[in-house]
From TrEMBL:
Keywords for this protein: Hydrolase
Stated name of the protein: NTP pyrophosphohydrolase
Keyword hit for Cell cycle: no
The protein's required cofactors: Mg(2+)
GO MF term list: hydrolase activity
Entry superkingdom: Bacteria
Family listed: Belongs to the Nudix hydrolase family.
Originating organism: Alkalicoccobacillus plakortidis
Amino acid sequence: MDYIKMIRNKVGSDPIILNFAGICVVNEKGQILLQKRGDCNQWGFPGGAMEIGESLAECAKREVLEETGLHVEIDYLIGVYSNYFTTYSNGDQAQTVLHFFKGYPVKGSLNVDGVETVELAFVDPEHAPPLFNQQHQDCLADYRSNEKGCFR
């Protein structure tokens, strides 16, 4: 069973802490991969919620594969972003903790599923479109500043 659904069945919409992992996937041209999300039709980095039994790195790689079709390897941790509170459109509340990595594609090809992902694009990091939330905006700023291992 999906971890978030399992927790939500127990606590309803009450505030919880959720661990997420994401990757700034950088291609050989130095461009970063962005995902236009199906839930809000806005741009962000690929990533998602950690499941019971997986590491943060496994979570990040799984989510990138599911959302983009790419197998990736991780270079390093850009940062941990933990002081963000979200109320989702269904009323669920969460403090989200995002562990954000820099990585690169090793195989696969971009695949848009039309549900979770409606568009994918490699873009120049200095000319990225607006991202869907402050957490992702802070991740992009830290990547641009060449941060490693920061905590926000």
